[in-house]
User: What shape does this take?
Amino acid sequence: MMYAIGADSGTQGTKVLIVDFNGKVLGRGHHPHQMIAGLKKGESEQDPQTWTEALDNALSQALKAARVDPSRIVSFGVSGQQHGFVPLDSEGIPLRPAKLWNDTSTVKETEAIIEKLGGVKSFIQKLGINLAVGFTASKILWLKRKEPEKYRRLETVLLPHNYLNFNLTGKYHMEYGDASGTGLMDIRKRQWHRESMTALDPDLEAKFPPLSHPSQPVGYIKDEFCQRFGLSKVLVSSGGGDNMMGAIGTGNISPGVCTLSLGTSGTIYSYCSEPFVDPEGEIAAFCDSTGGWLPLLCTMNVTNTTEYFKALFNASNQELDRMASQASSGAGGLIFLPFIDGERVPVLPFASGVLFGLDRKNFNVSCLARAVMEGTILNLGYGFSRMKSLGLKPQEIRATGGGAKSRTWLQIVANIFKTLVITLKEEEGAAYGAAIQSIWNYFYDKGKKVTIEELTGKMVKKGTLMVEPETRNFSLYDELQEKFNSLWQSLRKEFKTHRKNF
Assistant: This one.
């Protein structure tokens, strides 16, 4: 039997799976990440060394748990948090900490790039995607403006998963999926967009690796790394962003299937065989990491809000679920706008959270807990309705992430989205998808005609939890969705005043 490694380097930590070629997970490892403390509001950064150390520790744990012969491991796939900016010097050493996906300190740079390309409509027409605040492009301009001495030493631009691949192989590489989240790529042609590159720097394109189809691997792991872990000859796949790998790990590679990730951020996405372009730019028109496209909605506030709530009451996940389940649907009219870290969709980078409708009946722990949960899904509901208006026809939602462990939360999802929700046997969709993609790349490299559809069909298994939407609650949640949308729209001007504090 041959084995694969799948690693997911996220915001909060790195997870590693050891998987056999039949899809069975044999070993797991996890190591947390440290955030850089003391930053200004809106800034979010990590030292890339945090990721490499976490990968080493998580891999050691997974290998120990798997109890397999490491020399039988033949492929390694890496999933990483999207949009992060890893600037390297001529020696391949990071010039500074990486600015992450949820860093909203680059609003002015984002606006400047969009303006230089003729405004939002023009930008979307040219690249097929809007430039969100969290995308990589504005971070590069930020470095050029704020830290010019470091920018002059910039030799190579990588994203987080590319940096880990570089750490493993010594090679610079980028594939379509993660690269499409830089805001510098024509997603329809799957090429770097020269005008947007030049808007930042005429020489910028030379600092990016050439783009590769995701079926093409990066190369083999360096000898020093192999010796440290007892590995032999291990092929590193192209890898991808966490959402692209999550799509593979949940079998979301055909129309009608949606993946919902309830993590720090909230994402919902589906497969398309052709480019899916939102003329308003609210839905991200990404490429996927199989050769197709992945229209995606991302909100910035899901489990971060419940973590804050749990900390207030020193509550566990189970206690949170119990609290929320004791309140009726609609939380007694209490509505929570979960914009704790600003928001990407709707575009409210300077927004803050709001509790609306408090009264004597709902001012209690249960209604507050349920309102927090419902607010995160109502926030996703705004964008999900937009996706459906653009042609998405959801038949089934496959839920992953920490929030997917809560039946109460999943019932809220099913009711607001009016769609069947299921869980999967393997909950770590991104790490599992990275392992599957690495097996696909391994067969590709060996000249064997094995499709990614064949692999996911064999390896991705549905879980035991299936949640049907409750039709009796449709009208209630339709009304709440309308109120939620009206609230953030009416408060938009108020949120913009927060910009003066930056």
Summary: The first strand starts at residue 3 and ends at 9. The two ends are 56 Å apart (CA to CA). The mean pLDDT is 95. Residues 365-389 form the longest helix (25 residues).
